[in-house]
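Allow me, if you will, to draw on your knowledge of protein folds for a short while. I have a record of one protein: its chain in single-letter code and its fold written as discrete structure tokens. I should value your view on which stretches of the chain appear to form regular backbone elements. Thank you for your consideration; the sequence and its tokens are set out here:
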Amino acid sequence: MAGRRDDLLDAAIELLGEQGVRALTHRAVDAAAGLAAGSTSNYFRTREALFDAIVERFAARERANWEELATHLEPRTTTDLARALTVFARDSAGRNRALTLSRYAILVEASRRPELRAQLGATGSRVNTWFATWLRLVGSTDPDHHVHIIGNYLTGLVLHQLAIPDPDFDPTAHLDALLASLIQSQRERGSRDSGS
């Protein structure tokens, strides 16, 4: 039962990512999943129910991708962390392109449906916890603040790569420079504060 439901949701995520929200119909999901007409509506009676389930499935898949990466990493320098984030960015714009595009479609939909914001916030908090831990390891004393700066920058990098693909996409140097700059300015502020 869960297998067919997940197949439908994965097909819906692909459809949403590649063709956008307007393409998301029960009939289109049936076709994309290669299942008989009516299969999607058996599981999800309304378009809203389908969309809510897509958000849950998308969040679970994206979290699993992040954790697969995160469990093998323990960055000690900004360069280590920049390399790890580059792996994530390349994966997001490559192997998991449709999943990432569906995230952007879901974010746009959340601007119209506030209840989706809470779902997205809950999922993002676990990833932010991993990320904040990494930032502490590389020297950040304000990781909760830095998570948002780096996360937003990374989101922009991936979006740009999706829109205007660069076959040599490698944001490592830029990410390293941003991380080093944030941590260095934090240290300088701390030195000034302690010296006064």
Q: What stands out?
A: The mean pLDDT is 88. The chain has nine helices and no strands.
